[in-house]
Design brief:
Length: about 250
């Protein structure tokens, strides 16, 4: 209903702008939370196994339901589609618009205009890169875990995609949040110039932090996957299970 109104009412552009900001904020915050969860591998295989089981609802239902992961990934994919649809209105569409934009960027030397362009380019790349990752998760939700994920990263040769995705998504999310703050005047303080400077610094610190965390995490998956390549496909058996229960339990069942 809100969406239909947004398309037809005179206040449509404002509503669409708001929906775009809200979906963008949720996606950017999700990405940071996602990075912390995925980086559990840095604490060891058992820690990542535990996070996986939590997402499958095991602490609540007594057994893991990977379908929950599919549903969650579907929800994130829907948010991306909504966000991208709303953003598309602002993409330059014709050769003439691109020429004008380049002329403008060459003339004004305004950092925020460059950031907007980076946002357009990284957003476009995300259409393709994020879809590959999400489709994989939606269709194979049980294949997440210390060995299953690492095998996908190394033996499944996903690491080049993840490496590019990491830079693209962290730049896009960081710049996006910064632009939303400036647009709606959040955390700007009394002096907009000082506020902008403070937000720029915060943006780079956060982007750098998540890039370093992401690179270390990816390296950890690559290492586990490399060492496990001869047994790729075999599931992780947590230390607690293997001591107490010698039955062949997998990562996801
Ligand atoms: C906006 C959507 C998403 C983006 C852009 C994204 C991005 C990424 C990136 C860049 C990595 C590599 C990690 C690294 O470089 O350190 C990764 C790994 C991973 N992501 Fe996502 N992700 C998204 C959504 C999801 C969702 C919805 C889930 C689960 C419900 C998920 C689960 C995982 C898992 C388990 C890994 C570890 C490697 C693997 O199992 O393939 N991601 N993701």
């Amino acid at each position: 209903m809100l969406f239909k109104n947004a398309l037809t009412s005179p206040r449509g552009p404002a509503v669409m702008d708001m929906l775009q900001s809200v979906s963008g904020i949720i996606l950017a915050l999700f990405m940071w939370a996602h990075m912390f969860m995925v980086s559990s591998i840095l604490l060891g295989n058992d820690a990542m196994y535990w996070v996986t089981k939590m997402f499958e609802g095991e602490p609540i239902f007594g057994k893991g339901y990977p379908i929950l992961v599919s549903l969650f990934a579907l929800f994130i994919l829907s948010l991306i589609i909504l966000h991208a649809f709303l953003a598309m209105r602002k993409f330059p569409a014709t050769h003439r618009q691109y020429r004008t934009l380049h002329k403008h960027l060459g003339g004004v030397r305004h950092t925020d205009s460059y950031l907007w362009y980076v946002q357009v380019v990284t957003g476009f790349a995300l259409f393709f890169l994020a879809s590959v990752h999400l489709y994989q998760l939606i269709m194979h939700p049980a294949d997440i875990g210390p060995f299953a994920s690492s095998d996908r990263v190394w033996s499944g040769r996903m690491w080049p995609l993840y490496l590019i995705l990491l830079f693209v998504v962290e730049l896009h999310g960081g710049i996006g949040l910064y632009r939303v703050m400036v647009k709606w005047g959040w955390f700007m303080g009394k002096d907009p110039k000082v506020g902008r400077k403070r937000l720029t610094l915060a943006k780079w610190v956060l982007t750098l932090f998540f890039l370093v965390l992401g690179l270390l995490t990816l390296a950890a998956y690559m290492k586990v996957g490399y060492e496990h390549q001869d047994r790729a496909g075999e599931r992780y058996l947590p230390a607690a299970y293997s001591q107490v229960n010698r039955a062949p339990q997998g990562e996801s069942h």
